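Q: What would this chain look like folded?
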Amino acid sequence: METNVKSIELKDLWRRYKRDGDDRARERLVVAYSPLVKYVSGRMASGLPAHVEEADLISYGLGGLISAIERFELEREIKFETYAITRIKGAIIDELRSLDWVPRSVRARARAIERANTKLEHKLQRAPTDEEMAAELELTVSEFQDQLLQISNSTVAALDELWTVSDASGDQVSLLDTLQDPGAPDPAQVIDTSDLKDRIADAIARLPEREKLVVALYYYENLTLREIGEVLGVTESRVSQLHTKAVLRLRGRMSEDNIDHE
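A: My prediction, written as C-alpha cells:
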C-alpha cells in the first residue's frame, strides 16, 4: 500500500516529528498514510452488515493510524505500513466491539460450532466435514451453512485477534508491538511470542486444504472474499463460509491450547 508522498520527504517528516516534536510534521504524516485507513476499512466493510457504514470504519481507523504514528519507533526493523495496518484494524475492531451490535444468538451459535468442532476433532483425529458438524449440532447441512453465513456477516473478530495480547495497561496490542529493541531483548517475552506463533502456525497447518488456502489468500495475499471466490471458482458466500469455519476452528484450537498451557 503506497502513499502519495515521496520516500525522501517521508523520511524528513519522520525525522522532524520524532526528533524535534514537530506537530505539523505529525499532521502531514497522518495525511500521507491516510490511504492505509481507507484500504483497511474497505476490506473490513465487505464482511460486515450493510448498516455498518464504511465512513464510520474510516473514522475509527484514523485513531489507530494516529496511535501508530505516535508509537512507532524508527529503529524497528519493520515497515511502518505493516505496523500501522495492524493498529488500524485493532482500533476498528475495538470500536465495533464497544457498540456491541452482534446479537447474543449469533455469539451463542459461534461458541456452539467451536465446541462441536473441538469435540469432533478429538473423536475423529481430523477436521470434521460439514455433514458431520451438522449431525453433531442436530442441524441439516443447509442450516449449518446458513449459520456460518450469519456468523460471518455479524462477526468482526477474526483471525487477526489471535495475534493480539494485552499490554501492561490492559490495552489490546498487536504482536508487532511486543517486539523489543534488538539491542535489549526480553528473553521471556521472545519465548512467549515465538510459542504463540508456533501454535497458530500448527493450527493453520491442520486446517482442511481449502480453508488453509482461503486463510493464505485473505490474510497473506490480501485478496478480498470476492477475489478469492474467482480464484477458487466458487461464490463469495461460499468463501465466506470457508473463512468462518477456518476462524472458528482456529479459535477453538487456540482456546484449547491456552487451557493446556495453564
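DSSP finds eleven helices and two strands in the chain.
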